[in-house]
TrEMBL record, chains A, B:
Lineage: Bacteria, Bacillati, Bacillota, Bacilli, Bacillales
Family according to the record: Belongs to the FAD-binding oxidoreductase/transferase type 4 family.
GO MF term list: D-lactate dehydrogenase (cytochrome) activity
EC number: 1.1.2.4
Keywords on record: FAD, Flavoprotein, Oxidoreductase, Transit peptide
Record's keyword annotation contains Transit peptide: yes
Protein species of origin: Ammoniphilus resinae
Protein name: D-lactate dehydrogenase (cytochrome)
The FAD-binding PCMH-type domain, residue ranges: 34-211
Necessary cofactors: FAD
Length: 453, 453
């Protein structure tokens, strides 16, 4: 532990903490995964300090875990091997807004809420919305996505350039400020989603969009999950500009009503948001409604004023809390998988049946335009039998997805929770990933134990 | 050369050729770069044969060059170190169309024309249009893009999964059939654009789109390049769904008129295509026209019937031939760079001035929505002074771009022509790229001498 003293010499007393509360704060994320303390937490103020810390850690084979706000869901930031947790909260500057280029340069500790507040002044917004007000560095590290990805793409699609500090302290830039490039390997895409295992991000250049002229929200109620999903396929085929299209199953709507004092019909429901200009949108919304009708939509209700619209998305975002609320003493286990959209309805039905069979309650909700859905299970971590059931349910859902050309996680990432499915999903490609990691982190100091087991 | 006999034993007499005409055919691409013969050309029929060839070549340290149709523009497929050219023309099957998932699985030798003919039956189309009717394997290898990328994205955005044969013969899949994933490293994006230096592609899963209800084309004429570019920025800011928006400069329009018997005003011109549904489009087109007017547009002319529309895009696509036609005995040197869009107008003006100063004639045309433009120079390869001038012009244009946050190639790729700019553009990140290559191709047999020098 004398390395802590050396760290203090390296980047200053005030930037290095072993305070028990600070250590505890960096021992967990928002998931059910078991916490573990780091030996020390550092708070660098710039790229140079990050470089110094990594170079030092690499020389001494000390594990490094980059840490944003700890909102990850698969244990990504838990330092299971101790070592140094790097907290980027002091690197939280918005460095440059380039409205004409639809670009912004930020430090990794900037949150998406903070960024959107600044961008609003320019009539711009940052699209990726994973729910939590995460840091942009963290969102790039896990390749976050969320409700708006069906229209605007995932985190990887927004990152033009990363400044990355490698394990040995070298600082590289992975891209440029251009919309596209065919120069050299596309390492930006590889670093996005690498979960801190390839390097630490110290600057991000991100794509932003103009705030749409009109935003409309609607709720569409269907007899079955199949008909809801089929509507989504029809809407996407027609090229209608939905910006969000979220599925909430009947059981979950029940819980929404209880928790949010809403009175929504307790059937499979799509929560939809349209972005566009007034004339274009009117036509598109009518068209979407017609497509929903053809799929036996029972109600298609516009939330025209901003209060009702806010209530609708609040109800959707509060779904997790709705289940937490009624399950005192239990902890949330969230899993997410993604499939080709043609396999989505079958997968969701199968998952609900598996939950019923196992006697575990929970929510099913999906970014259905992406073929991505989540299951929120409420479990008692101290009940080994229930834990076992939940784990086996998780495995069942992942198996179903991978067998049908899907993936074990659409947006939460691998962390520790999905590491056991990597070989099954990637086969020999997993060895290629390991080889890429070894090429830039030969000593294995960067977030060890994550992704690869 | 006795390895050729061994190859025949490995994959059959009929699949291995040393016929001089065949060798010559595989010695060049469409560029001005000096040809070089391979020792042998093989025509594998399936993944297993590709794997056998690579494994064999790796054991014997024989260079491998994957070959599609040879339409590349920077010498990518020229076997400067001899060895084996792998021609994928026999692997040209469309394996599966999944309309509901907007996906198609193809072998690498399928051309985009062949694919679009098949997709039409389903009301779908493949979006990437680099001009040439290239193979999809080749387009993935160079990360091709083109006129439609402003709306639908580049080749990398379309590739969901690649089956890749690695140097040692291992066969991996880099992705899945899903719209997104956060499982493991995104190796798909790294292999796309790797120009045959990381492995050979044997199967591609690609994203396709519904054919738009209505397609409208227009020509917008401006007093200056700046005003044309400014219109593009305004159109993109407004979220108007342009599918193509191409800039052709005044000098190039002159040549178009001469060659295509058109009578277009000889001023900076945008060639625009709108995709959408009728009602939505009418509004968007009016809006676009208004934005053009605000930028002093002198003419905004719709090519309403399909014949006029075809003539417009033919004129655009024939621009290269228009210059070739008037320069008998000269060869085309095409260069492409990409910049943040705010730097585009300045870059194009600077390039035209540099061409005038050097006394070299040529076309300037750009995928201006992407910040990408090409210069087509007509040069006499046997005139060392002219070659030197052209090379120095190329360098000037690249320097201008990189200095302003741009990249030395937007879509043509590195090959041999842009290898010398890689260190300047990527700095230490180039060493990371090399390390990734070494991780999967330790003997350096895959397309040696390309990208890295």
């Amino acid at each position: 532990m004398d390395f802590v003293q050396e760290l203090r010499g390296l980047i200053g007393e005030e930037s290095v903490s072993t305070n028990p509360t600070v250590l505890e704060h960096h021992s967990h994320d928002e998931s059910y995964h078991t916490p573990h303390l780091p030996d020390v937490v550092v708070f660098p103020k710039n790229t140079e300090e990050v470089s110094k810390v990594l170079h030092f850690a690499n020389e001494h084979r000390i594990p490094i875990v980059p840490y944003g706000l700890g909102t990850s869901l698969e244990g990504h930031v838990i330092p299971y091997q101790g070592g140094i947790s790097i907290d980027f909260q002091l690197m939280n500057q918005i460095l440059e807004v380039r409205p004409q280029d639809f670009l912004v340069k930020v430090q990794p500790g900037v949150t998406r809420g903070q960024l959107n507040k600044e961008l609003k002044k320019y009539g711009l917004f940052f699209t990726v919305d994973p729910g939590a007000d995460a840091t942009l560095g963290g969102m790039a590290a896990t390749n976050a996505s969320g409700t708006t990805s069906v229209r605007y793409g995932i985190m990887r699609d927004q990152v033009r350039d990363l400044e990355v500090v490698l394990a040995d302290g070298r600082v590289i830039h992975t891209g440029s400020m251009t919309a596209k490039s065919s120069s050299g390997y596309h390492t930006t895409g590889l670093f996005v989603g690498s979960e801190g295992t390839l390097g630490a991000f110290t600057e991000l250049t991100l794509k932003v969009y103009g705030i749409p002229e009109v935003i409309l929200a609607a709720r569409a109620v269907f007899p079955t999950v199949e008909e809801a999903v089929s509507t989504v396929v029809d809407i996407l085929s027609a090229g209608i500009g939905v910006a969000r299209i979220e599925l909430v199953d009947a059981r979950s709507i029940q819980q929404v009503n209880l928790y949010s004092q809403t009175n929504y019909p307790e059937k499979p429901t799509l929560f939809i948001e349209f972005h566009g200009n007034e004339q274009g949108l009117n036509y598109e919304v009518d068209f979407a409604k017609k497509l929903a009708d053809e799929n036996h939509c029972e109600q298609f209700i516009f939330e025209t004023n901003s209060k009702e619209r806010a209530q609708l998305w609040e109800a959707r975002h509060n779904l997790a809390y709705a289940f937490i609320h009624r399950s005192p003493g239990k902890k949330m286990m969230v899993t997410d998988v993604v499939l080709p959209i043609s396999e989505l309805a079958g997968s969701i039905k199968d998952a609900r049946k598996a939950m019923d069979d196992a006697g575990i309650d929970g929510a099913i909700l999906g970014h259905v335009g992406d073929g991505n859905y989540h299951i929120i299970l409420m479990i008692d971590l101290d009940n080994p039998e229930e834990m076992l059931k939940a784990e086996s349910l998780n495995k069942h859902i992942v198996d179903y997805a991978i067998t049908r050309g899907g993936s074990c996680t659409g947006e939460h990432g691998v962390g520790i929770g999905k590491a056991k499915y990597q070989r099954r999903e990637h086969g020999d490609a997993l060895d290629v990933m390991k080889a890429f990691k070894a090429a830039v982190d030969p000593n294995g100091i960067m977030n060890p134990g994550k992704i690869f087991i």
